[in-house]
Amino acid sequence: MRYSRINLHGRAVFAEIADGLAHVLDGDPLSGPAHRTGSRVPTASVDFLPPVVPGVFYAVGYNYRSHVEHYGARAPERPEVGYRANNALTGHRSPIVRPAGVTGRFEAEGEVVAVIGRTLKKASRNEAQESIFGWTIGNDVSAREWQHADRTFWRSKNSDTFKPMGPWIETGVDPLAQTTTVRVDGTVKARFATGDMIFDPFDFIVETSKYITLRPGDVLWMGADSNVQLEPGRTVEIEISGIGTLSNPVLEEK
Amino acid sequence: MRYSRINLHGRAVFAEIADGLAHVLDGDPLSGPAHRTGSRVPTASVDFLPPVVPGVFYAVGYNYRSHVEHYGARAPERPEVGYRANNALTGHRSPIVRPAGVTGRFEAEGEVVAVIGRTLKKASRNEAQESIFGWTIGNDVSAREWQHADRTFWRSKNSDTFKPMGPWIETGVDPLAQTTTVRVDGTVKARFATGDMIFDPFDFIVETSKYITLRPGDVLWMGADSNVQLEPGRTVEIEISGIGTLSNPVLEEK
Q1: Which terminus of chain A is more solvent-facing, meaning fewer CB atoms within 10 Å of its CB: N or C?
Q2: Which among A55, A99, A160 has the least Cβ separation from residue B86?
Q3: Helix boundaries (H) for chain A
């Protein structure tokens, strides 16, 4: 099943995506049963929102070996989460806006995202696996000069529109058996095995939940293998096989 | 006016605190008019929840000169926000639980908290001042050995119960003219001028909103002057004059 959140006449509603249609639901499938209302919209004309607004927005830093090597960084020895901020979320097809004043590398990272479906604390690996509601796609956009100049990731990674997520949550896929492909204006710029991680999502959930209660709707962005330069006027696509394609045009702030 | 969120028979509701009573409201005063329902509870028996669950939980690091000097750190040259996580929030009177395995300094920091009441981007200083819904109190609990050992603040500052907030939001106070007092079992352990900040809340809002949309319910924890050691079996109180007193017992994880 594929679940989206969409803007329907100014109201955020959940929808099931099937056969090229968004079937509007009468509730939030993350919090209980949700049924088709009968209202439906062709996906081509849907205004996609981020498929979930998390209570906590977890994100993994270095988690692919070649990414660690690219930066000459030390590989992490433990699965330690970081955080991103909800203001930065934006939906499939919405623009990534490069703020005025950004110079240097302005980069996309294509990431698989775990969406938590259960409340859990001190989870076993099996409980971690069963806690997943589904999987979506994230683009962890970064302004590198700010990342290096600032004390925190506040504007380098959390400026408005820097965290596209979507287009939907796929509930029936093994993300570790997939391929991530990043394209700019249709040209492949990066391709890697989605599952080629140093620590997998369940490692992170087990470790995090030793101290932290995870709740339905929390998201965990799993890091990327490669960085891809973005320029205003171009469109970036993150495809993860078995899930879908997250596409966003890049604009320059006016 | 003083607004709380309370647990009423298993349901989270908003309440106005006056004359020793929590007057239950029919809505969320942060999102629109809310009126007394007639139901009321003596504050002495109220189960206080964090007064707001933020969309984004902003927190300031070093922001008092003596705190910077204590750590031999470099004073910040710009007002740069960091983040904390909602799972760690807990209410007035609820326990701070020290996880098994924590050794070394386990410390409280008493902080004034700005609660945002309006959506704002690229705010002027005047707009920043007008965007405030009110002020509450936060205790930024930290496990220092984890803080030094880990790549991020995930468990050192964001373990469950490490972020008591409350007891209410006070809408009619100038926080910069107040005094913060930290007590353990009634003994004063720290006292400082709340307003003696390197950058004040409006400096942070102006700078952050250059790139980031702030929204009603977002919170900004303003940092502390002093650290106070916590031990299981004791009770920590943060009093900020004009706002109130946030009190939490400290327990050891079983």
Answers
A1: C
A2: A55
A3: 65-70, 125-130, 144-149, 201-208
